[in-house]
Amino acid sequence: MRCDYCYNKDIVFAKNGAYSLDDALAFLQTRRSLLDGVVLSGGEASLQELTPFCKAIKKLGFSIKLDTNGTNPELIKQLIALELLDYIALDYKAPKEKFQAITHSRNYDAFSETLTFLIEADFDFEVRTTLHADLLNEQEINLIIKNLKQRNYKKTYYIQEFRVTEENIGNLQKPKNSFDKSRLLDDIKIVWR
Q1: Exposed, middle or buried by CB within 10 Å (0-12, 13-18, 19+), for 12?
Q2: Rounded (10°) angle between helices 50-59 and 21-29
Q3: What is the DSSP pairing of strand 63-68 with strand 37-40?
Q4: Count of CB atoms situated within 10 Å of the CB of 193
Q5: How far apart are CA 164 and CA 182, in angstroms?
Q6: Does the first or last residue of the chain, that is N or C, have fewer Cβ atoms within 10 Å of its Cβ?
Q7: Given the DSSP bridges, would you call strands 87-91 and 190-192 parallel, antiparallel or unpaired?
Q8: Cross-strand partners of 67
Q9: HSE-up of 170 (CA within 13 Å, CB side)?
Q10: pTM score, two decimals?
Q11: Binning pLDDT at 50, 70 and 90, where does residue 18 land?
């Protein structure tokens, strides 16, 4: 994906990583008594073969949270079946009708499969959306809320307000459009971040 608001531009467009998995594990070894858990994020962490890496992290005694766009449902199912993940933060980028415009990808169906799986698996996870008011409006967030309710999502829905950083993929600045939170449906619990 190439979401315009993404601030991990250097990671998304990197040809090679700066550290190997062995480097990361060596670092974690030095933090065994200092940290409780590890967050696997990106870009998109599930583009990597995470199973052996997660097994090694678990052997060190850490909990694992995966931040994901949900476009690799088979890997996510495998990691959960092997009990290698403790928590997932799933990015619901946009309603189906706007998904490609926001993400520059056609992977809504894969994301949807992951969301359905997580709800039915009763796995510990959250759904979150990054909101830039020039990209998503109240109606579009309400479409997400309606979809979550239809799927029987009973957890908290987190909306993360875009913050201007030094660089983001689309060189976005502060939104010109306003966003009226009072126009959102109250069908599910919403927390603003």
Answers
A1: middle
A2: 10
A3: parallel
A4: 10
A5: 23
A6: C
A7: unpaired
A8: 89
A9: 19
A10: 0.93
A11: confident
Q: Which of 128, 149, 151, 140 is nearest to 184 (CA)?
A: 140
Element (DSSP H or E) covering residue 88:
strand 87-91
What is the domain partition of the chain in residue ranges?
Answer: 9-192
Q: How far apart are the C-alpha atoms of 74 and 141, rounded to whole Å?
A: 27
The first and second tokens of residue 169, run together, are 């993929």
The CATH homologous superfamily to which domain 9-192 belongs is Aldolase class I (3.20.20.70)
Q: Give the C-alpha separation, 104 to 170, whole Å.
A: 11
Q: What is the pLDDT of residues 98-150, one digit of tens each?
A: 999 999 999 999 999 999 999 999 899 999 999 999 999 999 999 999 999 99
